[in-house]
User: What shape does this take?
Amino acid sequence: MKNGKLLAWILDDEWIDHSVEKAILEQNGFDVKVTRFETLDAEWPIYAPYADGVIVQVGFPCYEDLIEKLDSCRVITASSVGYNTIDLDAAASKGIKVTHVPEFCSEEVSDQTIAHMLTITRRFPAYNRQVKEGKWDPMDTLPIQRFSSNTVGFVGFGKIARRVAEKLKPFGVRLIAYAPSAPKEVFSKYSVEAVEFNDLLRQSTILSLHIPLRPENRNIIGYEQLKMMPKGSLIVNTSRGGLINEEDLYQAIVEGHIAGAGLDVLLNEPPDPNDPLLSLDEVYVTPHSGYVSDDALNELKNKTCQNIIDGVAGRPLVKVLNKEALNKLIM
Assistant: This one.
């Protein structure tokens, strides 16, 4: 609290317009301050000690050195599904609950996933390029396999992957998934076969990633895993870039074992223009845009603000991401 008013502090190096958040939070008694990374060093002494709630945009680092300065904070919310840039344990040590906005973009990301699958299997980038170069040859991108002949393998089978499965079912593809924590009845509900990880790799002609980026998942797909997949397989990642070892992916594509990749996320965003992956015709990249639609963004901003309002008021949150660490602190 600062000057007798609640303070919501937005940490964002991506979006310029925060008029929606400001309107909602100000109506609920908050002052709102926005800090970009370039001004963080100058502004954290002004806002950090007094912020009652903190909004962290995806990609903005909110680690121990910053969290330890949050002396009045009750809640930190990621303005996203992902929360890997927030130090959960550091927040728990300060008694701060951390939450996020799950599911706001399940429709958009599942659409983006399928769009990538169809784009790379039907070779749209290559066709588009050759037409713009004055060519007209539908046969110059072969081989192209019938889409329904594919086995789509999901790494993870949460809500987004389940929506992808629902939307893919009419295409007639075979669906398999590796998700050891998912209830057995979920797989039968979506007509998906549960398999072990190595079996997933051996059988998937399209591999789709749907897990959060955590230390144990970093580079879960590397050269060894890629070589286990059938020759000519494809990779789609609309989750987090660090899940794939990009150097290994480049090598597997150059060697001709992996036929291509559709990537909405990369390890470094934005990437270096000289990133080798960007030089490959077989790789189709979108700028982490899977979540984007007018409806989704409006929902995200409203739910992010509600997290701040509820968290500061002590009301229940949709999910407390560091609940276990907070409970240990109490015990």
